[in-house]
Structure formats: C-alpha cells, structure tokens
Design brief:
The complex is a heterotrimer of chains A (460), B (205) and C (203). Helix content of chain A is 25%, strand content 17%. Chain A is of the alpha+beta class and 460 residues long. In chain A, the strands form 4 sheets. A 4-stranded antiparallel beta sheet of chain A has the order 2-3-1-4. Chain C is of the alpha+beta class and 203 residues long. Helix content of chain C is 43%, strand content 16%. β5 of chain B pairs antiparallel with β3 of chain C.
Chain lengths: 460, 205, 203
C-alpha cells in the first residue's frame, strides 16, 4: 500500500499551468488538439515536447515569451500504445471521456456531443498542447514551430482554438473572472483566506496538495491514521500529474443582455447592473455581493489580501445579499449549505478560463458570431470534483434548497427555467434562455514531466 | 513497472448501480455481519435512538433520506423443503435507504457530519473501517450495496427530493390560507397578499 | 398559520401516529416499513432475475398501488461473500433469497391485501420462484410474506405523517406557485387573482 511520506511538491516535475494561472500574465492562449498518426512517431514527438515544457518552478529570468503544456486524452494514451492494464489504472470517468459522460453531465439537447465542433468528443483528439504567449509575435512563432513538428511526425491537428484576454480582463457577459482559486499547501498557502478549507472561528487552512496533484496526500489522507494516498494511475504516471477538464462554452451575449433588461423593468428601480450582479454573485468588477451588497467596491482588486475572504452562511444564510442561486455561490458554495463547509470542501477545482471570439459591443443586436469561454480546470478526481460541481450544484439546485433550478447564468438544460432573487421583496427572474451552450470538450490527463517522458519512451 | 493497482472504488464515478435508481431516487441495500456485542447493543440503540441525540436531528437537517431502516436479522423463517434449515451463527444487520442525490455526496455527508452515528450503527459490524476518512467507509458500504443491486426499485414521486417535499408541505399552509380568502379580496388586495406569500415562502420556492 | 406549526387537528393526527409508532417498530408516523426475505427455489435465481428485469423495464406495478412510497426487490445470493470485511466462518445461507421491501401508507394487512389484489399476476410469477407459496392461490402471497417478515429495528421517515397522495398534491402545488411567481409581472391584478384561483384554488 502506498502511504504518504514527504509532502513537498516536486515543482520541477509538475507542469507549470496547473498551479500558476498564465492567463493573468499572458494575453493569448491557443489550444491545439493533435491526432497521433503512429505510436512510435507519437512518442518521438512527445519526447521533443517534454524538453520544452514549462514546469512549476518560479521563473528565474522573468516572464518567458511563450509556454507549452501538454495533456492527453484516454484515446491518446491508447494511440500511443500504452497497455490496457496501465490504461485501466486511470479513473473510470477519464477513460469514458467527456462525451461518454454526456448524459450525467447534462450535455444533452443543444449541448449534446453530436452537435459539438468537429474533432471533439469523437476520439480524434489525442494530445492537447496549450500554448500561452505574451503577444501575437511570440504566439505566431510558437504555433509555427508546433505545426511544423506535428506535420513532420505525421500527426494531424484536429482542433486549433485561439483564446485571448478581453479588455479589463472580463469575460463576454462583462464580468471580471478567475477569483477564488483554491489555496494549496506548499504552493499557494497565502491564498488560504477565502481559498482554503473553512474552519471554525472564521479561520481557513490550505488544501492538502493531493486534492489537485496526483501522488500526494489529499484530504482523506490527512484524516486517515494509516496515511493512505488517494488512488492514482500506475507509477510513474501517478506522480506529479493531474486530471484536466476542457470545455468550449459558447455564450449568447445578446440573449443574456436582453433577458436582464426585460426583467429589470420589474426589479428594484430597473437596476440592470444590480440584477446582473444578483445572477452572478459578484458585481462586474468582481466585488462580491455578500461583502458589497448595495454597490460595487470602486477599486476592487481580486488579488488583494482578504478580497476573497468571506463566507455565506453567517452573513447571508438566506441570500438577501447574494442570492442562494447566484452563479459563484453555486459553483463555489463555501459554507452556503451549512456544516461549516464540510459538505462542499471535497469538491473544489483549480479553474482556468480564457475568452474566445470578439466582444459584442454594448447595445448591439446579436451578430451570430462565435464567442464564449474556454473553460479548463484541474483536479485529482474528475468525478468527485468537476462532475460533482457540474451535476449537483450547477445542473440541479436541490442541495441548496432550490428544487430543480439549474444555474441561471449557464442557461439550464431544459428551456424556461427561473431563479429566485431572495430579499425582503423577492424577485422571481425568468424565463431562462440558453445563454451558454457546450461546443465540445475532453477529459485529459496532465502528466508530470518525467511521466510524459515515460509515455514518450514506453516500450512498444 | 509495477502491476496495475486496483482502482479505489470511490474513483469509479457513477457510484450507484443502475438498478438502484428511479429518477432522482436512489436505493441502498446493505448487509453486514454483527459481532457478538452488537447483539446486545443494537436493540438498545434501536429502542432508544435518542442515545444519539444528534444523529436523527442531523439526518433531518441533511434532508436527503426519504425513508431508511435498520433490521437485525437473527433467523430466517422456515418454509419447508427444499429450503435448507439455516442456523445463523451471528446476527446480520440489514440497512436500506431511499434517498436522493449523488452517492458520493451522500456518503461524504455520513462520514463528515454523522461520524458518531455511523459508528453507533456499524461499529459492531465486522470490517467497519470507521466513518472517517470517507474513502474506506465508502468502499465498505459500496462493496455490499453493489452485490445487492435492486432488480426492481420504485419511487412514487421519483422527481421529488426530500427537500422539495418538505418545502412543499411548508408552502401548503400559506397557500391554503390565501386560497380561503382569495375570493373575498379585491384584485389589488390579492396582489399584495400574493406578494406577501411569495416573500414568506421564498425559502421554499 | 405560521410556518411549520401544526394546527390542533394535525396535532391530534400526529399524536395518534406517534402512539401507533411506539407500539410497532415497523411504523414511523402513519407510514409502515415492510421487509420480507424469502427463499428462492434451487436453480430459479436466474429466471427470477430475468423476470424482475422484464418487470423493471416496464411501468412499475407499484404505480397501481397508490399507497406505496418506495419499494424494491433484491436477490440475495448468500451472506458469505468472500470479502475481507467478513469473519472467516461467515454464515452460508444454503440457497438464494429474495428481499422485498416497501414503505407505504397505513397498516400492513390492508396493504398486503391491496398488493395481492392489484398486482396479482406479477406476484404470482415472482413468488412461483420461491419456496413455500401455495400456487393457484394468489392471496396466499400475503400470508407468505407475513410469515417471512423481518421486523424493523429502526424505521426513519423524513415526513412520517404525509401520505403519497399528499406528497403529490403539495409538490404539484409548489410547482404551480413558482410558475405563477415568475409570470406575475406580466399579469394585471385581475389576471393574477384569476390564475391563482384557477391553478391553486383546489386543495
């Protein structure tokens, strides 16, 4: 049995995009999904990539111009010739793939895999190379190199998805994004207040690293007298890696604006900005409704100490400030359902998002253009973490006492949903429209760098 | 290269075998073997569940179990040949639950907030690993639950969760009150009363 | 009426339910929890599973018994499973057993009477695979189930005083009220009142 020993994270072996959000520092990200032609050529190509991967150690010489990170789907592991018993050591949901879990995830109807973009959810996407760059010239050079290497090894690019930060670091609905990342012991301890595990007396502590990185003690380990480690793929694949969820989410900006402005005619003095904030749980600049219920903080800085240090149950149990069904309160409920957060803290993710497409100008009618968000997240257990959030918290409201209400912002699975904005005079907001539609996605494994080399040189 | 490790059961994802699902409702059926001291302890616990003042209250507050039962099986009735006459050496604890919500959330809740209660019910059973951490406890329950997948499971209101039922019961009083007076009120008065109802009942809607 | 506080009539009902519950561990309020474990004829387990799978694929027979909250049939192969969790000398059952469990409104005997009347065909087929039922006598299944009943140690219900019919009524009412709450802004007070009476006017 594997038991825990040292907990120091091996930053030199962990891929850099897991613990560090490049999005804050890098304006462009392109996601390149590659189909492997031949297993041996695939190994040769990955061995080359492994030398270029950025790890999680602090940057010694300032910000590099661009970065590469690599993840693999289960179809990719098969295409690279890994034996069945090794593949069998990966989690069941990873092996099923996102499309294989569609029904459970609510990816039905408009979100169903048969409507996804070509190349996603079909087994054709084997390797995801994420390219982050400071600017267009750096991006262009990195992509040109990558395309040439892919072609030289006889592989094929099946999806190339560009994404860019928008002015003011907003997403398309107009909100600043990316707050409230989990605090991880040994990596981001400083974010514990608001990002860690809530404790009695308003205190917080960082998460055990195994919640997000494979091969380390997780929250079960710390409660276990035998200090057993969580399940992970066969060594050396189970060390310093993690699972990744990648989803391309189309946003219907015109429908969202229209719904809010129509409904706001009956809401507190027609205050559209406030109604939008009630749906999201934060004002557009990111200030949390629970700490700023009446107006946004004028100079809110989400990175400032304490900016994210709040709870729901004590200050706002019944949602008068931040509705129980607000998007950020559902996707990261903290102690919203009571029990000091003990029923929620095993369901956290490291969340990354990057908008794609150009913004729709304010006041413009729908232009039919593709725009939205590339959602990516990292977690040690896709079923316990990402899927639980998606299924139990976003697609259904029962846990929060919201019946079968789906998250209003995400648009729901069926048409015609609604949302209660609690307060002295509650507002019943509806009808919900398909504001967000899944355009495709994959479950991926992000190997440690040594593990990637092992995959590249696996005896075939 | 080491041989493939058996994946820990809590990582299998779907959690519940399909036979145990009807809409939102999920069945759990579990048998465990009871140690000698359990034969004396469990009847006391069943008779006086208030020995665990928090457990039933916590179950109530967690609000995801419609019905649950524990039975201690010490013998099985004889129905004539060819039924073998079985003398059970130890009691066997039968547990069933009719609940809503995902399996993972359910057992997490048991482990984290019903720790003492779970120890009281299963502490006298062979193999009970302790309620915390949840991983081994989940494996313990799942191992039996998977073997006892229901061949048929029925819920009369498969889309209604416990919370929805309890909210609907709370609203019933408010609605009945307005219903009785609706005819006497002017439309404007009615509108005001309706708004008052929606304000009072907002936590249940 | 303030939320959650029962009126005198409801209180009397609850009191009566409580007295019944104290007298019988199979009760919680007005609800009854029934469990019977019956021996399966040698070599019949697979056929029984197949039969139950066929029943499971169609509309549940319990939908014809409006007093049933929940019900299940489970095939129990043996107490001995070979698990590390068990004592080395675990009991063997010697044959397979069929678990039948149901949570329903009211008392046991009248429910079993309804059961054997309403789903006679299915019961006949199912218990034909079990040892000790008198065939060609559908009412014998009720006697048989009682003979093999296992008493509850503890029976818990989240809403012990609410019948299936009542659950269905209040849940439908909640849904209608929510829909009207969302629609209210586009209605005149007259229309609102009329729709309330129309959709929520009957208890």
């Amino acid at each position: 049995m594997t038991t825990a020993t040292a907990t120091t994270l091996d930053l030199a072996d962990i891929q850099g995009d897991i613990l560090r959000a490049y999005g804050n520092a890098y304006a462009s990200t392109t996601y390149v999904f590659v189909r492997i032609g031949d297993a041996t050529a695939g190994g040769a190509w990955l061995a080359g990539l492994a030398d270029q991967i950025t790890n999680a150690e602090p940057w010694a010489d300032g910000k590099p111009g661009s970065h590469l990170n690599v993840a693999l789907t289960c179809a990719g592991l098969t295409a690279l010739g890994l034996p069945d018993d090794v593949i069998g050591s990966f989690s069941a949901e990873f092996r099923a793939g996102m499309a294989g879990r569609a029904e459970r995830l609510g990816d039905i109807g408009r979100n169903a895999p048969d409507r996804w973009d070509d190349g996603l959810g079909t087994g054709a996407a084997h390797v995801l190379v994420t390219v982050n760059a400071l600017d267009e010239p750096h991006l262009g050079r990195a992509l040109a190199d990558l395309r040439a290497e892919v072609a030289r090894h006889g592989h094929e690019i099946v999806v190339e998805q560009a994404a860019h930060t928008l002015p003011g670091s907003r997403e398309h609905f107009g909100f600043a994004d990316g707050f409230a990342q989990p605090a991880i012991e040994g990596a981001t301890d400083d974010r514990a207040a608001g990002g860690g595990v809530p404790l009695r007396g308003g205190r917080w502590r960082p998460f055990a690293p195994g919640e997000f990185i494979l091969g380390y003690p997780d929250e079960d380990t710390t409660l276990d007298p035998e200090r057993r480690l969580p399940s992970a793929p066969t060594d050396p694949l189970g060390r310093n890696g993690t699972y990744m969820v990648w989803r391309k989410l189309h946003q219907d900006v015109a429908a969202f604006r229209d719904t809010i402005s129509t409904a706001a005619r009956h809401f507190e003095d027609g205050d559209e900005a406030k109604l939008r904030a009630k749906v999201v749980g934060r004002w557009e600049n990111g200030s949390p409704l629970v700490t700023h219920p009446d107006a946004p903080a004028t100079d809110f800085d989400g990175a400032a100490a304490g900016a994210n240090d709040f709870r729901y149950h004590g200050p706002d149990q019944h949602g008068a400030k931040c509705p129980i069904g607000a998007h950020v309160r559902r996707s990261n409920p903290r102690d919203s359902i009571g029990w000091e957060g003990r029923l929620t803290y095993r369901h956290r993710i490291i969340r990354r998002g990057m908008p794609y497409g150009d913004p729709l100008p304010v006041g413009a009618a729908d232009d039919g253009e593709e725009r939205g968000l590339v959602f990516a997240c990292f977690n040690a257990s896709i079923s316990r973490q990402f899927e639980a959030i998606q299924v139990q918290w976003l697609n259904d409201g029962n846990v929060f006492g919201l019946g079968h209400d789906a998250d209003f912002l995400m648009g729901g699975i069926a048409e015609g949903g609604s949302m209660v904005v609690q307060g002295e005079c509650p507002f019943y907001l509806g009808p919900q429209k398909p504001f967000v539609t899944v355009r495709g996605g994959e479950y991926l494994f992000v190997p440690g760098i040594a593990a990637l080399r092992a995959i590249a040189t696996w005896p075939r | 290269m080491t041989a493939v490790t058996t994946p820990v059961l809590s990582e299998t994802g779907t959690g519940t075998p399909p036979g145990n699902v009807d809409g939102q409702a999920i069945a759990i059926t579990v048998f465990s073997t009871v140690k000698r001291w359990g034969r004396a302890w469990l009847p006391v616990l069943f008779l006086e569940p208030k020995l665990l003042p928090q457990t039933l209250g916590t179950l109530e507050k967690l609000s995801f179990i419609h019905f649950a039962r524990w039975s201690m099986v010490t013998e099985l009735a004889w129905n004539g040949a060819p039924q073998p006459k079985t003398r059970l050496r130890r009691p066997h604890l039968y547990f069933e639950s009719n609940f809503n919500g995902g399996w993972e959330e359910y057992i997490d809740a048991f482990s984290y907030v019903l720790r003492e209660g779970m120890a009281a019910f299963w502490g006298s059973s062979y193999g009970f690993p302790g309620a915390v951490p949840p991983g081994p406890f989940k494996d313990y329950i799942k191992t039996s639950d998977r073997r006892l997948e229901a061949s048929h499971f029925y819920s009369a209101y498969a889309d209604s969760t416990v919370t929805i039922v309890k909210q609907a019961l709370e609203l019933d009083g408010l609605v009945a009150d307005l219903r009785e007076r609706a005819a006497e009120l002017s439309p404007e008065q009615f509108k005001a009363e309706f708004s008052a109802l929606l304000a009072k009942g907002q936590r249940c809607l | 009426m303030p939320l959650g506080i029962p009126g005198p009539r409801a209180l009397r009902t609850q009191l009566a339910d409580t007295v019944r519950a104290i007298a019988d561990t199979n009760r919680a309020g007005q609800a009854y929890g029934f469990l019977a474990i019956t021996p399966i004829k040698p070599g019949h387990a697979e056929a029984l599973r197949a039969l139950l799978a066929t029943i499971d694929a169609g509309p549940s027979p319990f939908s014809r018994l409006p007093r049933t909250h929940f019900a299940r049939w489970v095939v129990l192969t043996d107490f001995f499973t070979g698990d590390a969790y068990q004592p080395a000398d675990e009991d063997h059952l010697g044959c397979e057993y069929l678990i039948f469990s149901a949570c329903f409104d009211g008392d046991r005997d009248s429910y079993l009477e309804d059961l054997t009347a309403e789903i006679a065909d299915e019961l006949d087929e199912i218990y034909d695979h079990c040892i000790g039922v008198r065939s060609n006598d559908p009412t014998d299944v009720a006697r048989y189930l009682v003979h093999n009943q296992i008493d509850c140690g503890l029976f818990y219900s989240a809403y012990p005083h609410t019948t299936v019919a009542e659950v269905r009524r209040v849940v439908a009412q909640r849904t209608a009220l929510r829909a009207l709450a969302v629609a209210q802004y586009d209605l005149t007070p007259e229309e609102l009142q009329a729709q309330f009476v129309d959709q929520l006017g009957a208890a």
